[in-house]
Amino acid sequence: WLPWFKYTDRPLFFFYAICIIPFTVTILAIWLGRIMGSAQRPERRRIGAIIVGAAVVAVAVNFVFIYPVLTDGLLTRKAWLARMWFNSWI
């Protein structure tokens, strides 16, 4: 998705990205596993678990925040605009 940020002057459609989601999730799982570290180093693993836990919580909170837009939920205009982070999304 990062390369698409250079095209902020035009709309982009999410369904084009559907085919890369399994690969993105797999790579993220591998990275989070490496950040978490080996069970043989408990101090490193504890710090890694905190970092990974914070990342998972951040993703969950973002999903809850964006969910009404993804599902055409009822939002006030102010709430909807709060979820439009880029002008190209409008």
Structure, described:
The chain is an all-alpha fold and 90 residues long. The chain has one domain. It has three helices and no strands. Helix 1 packs antiparallel against helix 2. The radius of gyration is 17 Å and the shape is elongated. One of its GO terms (molecular function) is glycosyltransferase activity. This is Dolichyl-phosphate-mannose-protein mannosyltransferase. Keywords: Glycosyltransferase, Membrane, Transferase, Transmembrane, Transmembrane helix. The chain crosses the membrane at residues 12-35, 47-70.
List the helices and strands and how they pair.
Layout: H1 21-36, H2 42-70, H3 77-83
Helix pairs in contact: 1-2
Concise structural overview:
The protein is mainly alpha-helical. The protein is 58% helix and 0% strand.
Characteristics of this structure?
elongated; 0% strand; 90 residues; 3 helices; mainly alpha
Largest sheet: none
**What percent of residues adopt helix (DSSP H or I)?**
55-70%
**Count of strand segments:** 0
**pLDDT < 50 runs, ≥5 residues:** none
- What sequence of helices (H) and strands (E) makes up the elements? HHH
Total domains, how many? Answer: 1
Number of helices: 3
Question: Which range does the strand content fall in?
Answer: under 5%
Cα distance, first to last residue?
Answer: 18 Å
Supply Rg.
17 Å
Structural class of the helix and strand makeup? mainly alpha
Please state the overall shape, judged from the principal axes of the Cα atoms.
Answer: elongated
